[in-house]
Amino acid sequence: MEFVKKIQQFISYWYVRYLLATELYMVDTWEKVVMHIVFGIMFTLFWYFNYSIIMSGIAQLRSSTAHDVEQIL
Amino acid sequence: MATTIAGSRNERDLNKLDKHGFKDLKQNVHNGKTTNGYMKTNDLRNGDTKFGLSGGGVPKMDWSKYDTFPGSFEKCTLLTAALTHFGLYILMFLGFVNQLLFTPKVATEKNREGYAPLYDPFETFFSRYVYRRVQHCFNRPITSAPGAELTLKERCTDDRNWTFRFTGTERRCINLGSYNYLGFAGHSTHAAVAAAARQYGLALCSPRAELGTTPLHRDLEATTAKFLGVEAAIVVGMGFGTNTLGLPGLLGPGSLALSDEKNHASLIMGLRLARATVRVFRHNDVRHLEQLARAAIAERKWTKIVIVVEGVYSMEGTIVPLAAMVALKRRLGLQLYLDEAHSVGALGPRGRGVCDHAGVAPADVDVLMGTFTKSFGAAGGYIAGSAKLINWLRQYGHAHTYAHAMSPPVAQQILSAMRLLDEDEGRQRLRQLRDNTHYFRDQLRRMGVVTLGHPDSPVVPVLVYTFSKMAATVERLTESNVATVGVGFPATPLNKARIRFCLSASHSRAQLERCVEAVARAVRELGLDYSRQAR
């Protein structure tokens, strides 16, 4: 029980810090929800971009020989 | 080092004593009379000096000889700056979405085709969608005297801060928000004040120049002049009006004002009313000031050049480097207008303000302006200086001729407070204020928050950067029974919101310890420890 409470405290502390850092602390609830969703979408797009473009690019580089790299560059 | 004083035609060696026995031109003595140090020149182009961009034959100031400490301004990290800007963009974005979807009734102007909009679009937008959200931290009504403690009347809102209603409860808080530096607000000079009210009434219903001068006013003017160590003084019933009505009497379209960028609204308004040309120098930056002054002299078209500064800046907590400014104005033959609204009574070993603090003779400052609203717990302001200046102001400053005379009980309160300052109790209060200031600033530094300004300044701004943090801090402190003031745009730049603590001689150490504890809790919870200096 004590452990769960501590985790709850930890989460609520950092949630308030997140709200303060993004100025969401003082806006209405629906505006908070909108911004959470916007942040969520942005994060997902970043993740997908990194996953699909950057990761595959790096994988290609890793599997290629020095001669290939010269050609790619 | 032989040199020429600007425009005065008399060469002399500054290392030798002059014929009056003064070494560094510390006081100007002419015909056995002490003057204010400014020597009027008939013509700046006096033949034996060539004015170029460097200001003629006058050597450049060697600033290493003077205390030019502008106040501590710790820079924030790039991350903090980026987050603050990012937060502002989010606020603006949400505000625009809000305005688009739910336009409030106050935002629609009807039947105004063909007219310009009534309100400035950015400022109304700001007040609706940024200020309104944190409005519960401002304009809070109180129901007691603002002494060491005050009583807040609590409010709540049902419609997201568009309107408020009183809950009917009150909260007793330690007062860290009022400019009650010496603790004279709610002090027991009341018997004398009541006697003055009985004798003269509350209002004189007349300006000073007509039937509004009582012996109390004359006494107050003489006491103020003696208190400050100058020839004469004029008192005005309103502190803000002292600047806005006094400056147009002194300056005109041909004069140039070199104004500090953080100057108070009353000074800015006074300068605009005077139609003087204003050039702004960076806050407390004497080098920039020298550059502007020399360039202005080289233009050869100004009837006078006046430096306009404040003693203690209320939003920054900084103190003007007065000794350096006086040295500069002497060398270049400028004039100095000093607004001591926050410093008179609160600074210096004898409470004489920033002159006392910096060790400058009061006669070296041409115009000493100050208010009675802060340290003296009263109302109104004064302008002090040479007798000639004060007579001029009585004639040409609008306050004496057109504004209502100072209320007699108010004059009596100032007199009582000013006299008390020269007694043991007053000196005790000064010491207490200084101790409280040092203690509080020291504790804040240990917490790791960014405090601005001079170590001796009783105004202690703490930077929190964002509006949310400002609101959250004020909320947390109110919950811990500490009443203080958050300041944001337009009083500060958009990304430099701050909490301002004002210390008072009436705070006991136990009260301050409670405040420090409350502030420390808020700092821990909200993450306000931005400082990267040694703790």
Number of helices of chain B: 15
**Strand percentage of chain A:** under 5%
> What is the radius of gyration of chain B computed over CA atoms, rounded to a whole number of angstroms?
25 Å
The helix fraction of chain B, in percent, is 25-40%
- Supply the CATH class of the largest domain in chain B: Alpha Beta
Helical segment count of chain A: 3
Structural class category of chain A: mainly alpha
Q: Order of strands across the widest beta sheet of chain B?
A: 7-13-12-11-10-8-9
Can you tell me about this structure?
The complex is a heterodimer of chains A (73) and B (535). Chain A has 73 residues and is an all-alpha fold. Chain A has one domain (2-72). Chain A has helices at 2-21, 29-63, 66-72. Chain B has 535 residues and is of the alpha/beta class. Chain B folds into two domains: 79-109 and 116-175 and 448-526, Alpha-Beta Complex (Aspartate Aminotransferase, domain 1); 202-421, Type I PLP-dependent aspartate aminotransferase-like (Major domain) (Aspartate Aminotransferase, domain 2, 3-Layer(aba) Sandwich). Chain B has 15 helices and 17 strands. Chains A and B meet through α1 and α2 of A and α1 and α14 of B. Chain A: This is SFRICE_022167. Chain A: Keywords: Membrane, Transmembrane, Transmembrane helix. Chain A: The chain crosses the membrane at residues 33-54.
What are the salient characteristics of this protein?
heterodimer, A: 73 residues, mainly alpha, 85% helix, elongated, B: 535 residues, alpha/beta, Aspartate Aminotransferase, domain 1, Aspartate Aminotransferase, domain 2, 2 domains, seven-stranded mixed sheet, three-stranded mixed sheet, 36% helix, globular
